[in-house]
Amino acid sequence: MSEEKIYRTDDSRPLVELTHVEKHFGDLHVLKDINLKVAKGEVLVVVGPSGSGKSTMCRTINRLETIDSGDIRIDGKPLPQEGKELARLRAEVGMVFQSFNLFANKTILENVALAPIRVRHMAKKEAEDQAMELLARVGVDSQASKMPAQLSGGQQQRVAIARALAMHPKVMLFDEPTSALDPEMVNEVLDVMIELAHEGMTMICVTHEMGFARRAADRIVFMADGQILEEASPDEFFDHPKSERAKDFLSKILTH
Ligand SMILES: Nc1ncnc2c1ncn2[C@@H]1O[C@H](COP(=O)(O)OP(=O)(O)OP(=O)(O)O)[C@@H](O)[C@H]1O
Ligand SMILES: [Mg+2]
């Protein structure tokens, strides 16, 4: 039996696994011995002060950033260095960023249908049908023929989620998906994320939305200075943070 086959038949292995990951930007040590396992269907929320390495960690998981040393595996497979394998890996990892990075010169429907056609060679009609289904799922199917600039931020961010889902990712990464939104639009995006979580999607979410974290997270990871300082259930983390850094962080974030 090939190694690959053993991986595929093992349901108990983590879907995402980071082992001894190290990363520097020049002299700056941004990820320090990061060890993290995310199980299939788990919702992990990553919190921590600005500059602690949350985005960098996310970006290493779909290899938007390289790492200096250590190992990152998705579904048992090490991250490929480049080429076709890397494109395939990226397709397995959906990512939604803070800024709405839709293609400005394509319609909403085209935004969601494009990657399945180009990367997965899906027939146009099939990709568009799937796109309409996904847009309905995130509640913006009535906007399908519009251009991104004609949509609100909350709607655009829901389209970005639909676009990521169109590739049937094994895991979804969210990096502060609501922090650029007007307050009244935050919940419509969080609601979509909560629904995804309930449907069993494996999710890694960097967010300052502590209500969402409490409600949706299976586990909280607290990062500071490039390290994972705490890993706990939401109740444990919010009610009984252990480190001074986490206590300090929570006192700041929960009081304003
Ligand atoms: N491309 C880069 N080149 C140099 N330094 C970088 C780069 N990207 C990030 N950094 C630095 O790495 C550190 C970690 O940044 P990162 O964006 O991962 O933090 P973060 O926890 O996501 O912060 P925030 O909450 O503000 O988004 C910061 O000091 C940041 O300035
Ligand atoms: Mg960040």
From TrEMBL:
It catalyses: a polar amino acid(out) + ATP + H2O = a polar amino acid(in) + ADP + phosphate + H(+). One of its GO terms (molecular function) is ATPase-coupled polar amino acid-transporter activity. Pfam families: ABC_tran. It is an enzyme of class 7 (translocase). Keywords: Amino-acid transport, ATP-binding, Cell membrane, Membrane, Nucleotide-binding, Transport. Residues 16-250 form the ABC transporter domain. It is a peripheral membrane protein. It is found in: Cell membrane. InterPro entries: AAA+_ATPase (IPR003593), ABC_ATPase_HisP-typ (IPR030679), ABC_transporter-like_ATP-bd (IPR003439), ABC_transporter-like_CS (IPR017871), MetN_ABC_transporter-like (IPR050086), P-loop_NTPase (IPR027417). Its EC number is 7.4.2.1. GO terms for cellular component: plasma membrane. The keyword Oxidoreductase does not apply. Belongs to the ABC transporter superfamily. This is ABC-type polar-amino-acid transporter. It comes from Bifidobacterium primatium.
